[in-house]
Give the backbone structure.
Amino acid sequence: MHIIYEQAVSLLDDLIDEVGEDEDHPLASLMEVLGVLIEKYEDEHVPEITEI
C-alpha cells in the first residue's frame, strides 16, 4: 500500500478515538473528509475480496 494511504488510515483511527460520535467536535469535519478520501482511494486501488 502507499505510505500516504497508511498514514491517512492511522490518522483517521486517531480521529475516531478522539472525536467519537461528537458531531460538534472541532475535528469532526476533518474526520469526515478524510474518511471520504480514504474510501475513494480504496474504491480505485484496493481490489474487493471475492469468495472462491
The longest helix spans residues 28-45. Helices lie at 3-19, 28-45. The radius of gyration is 13 Å.
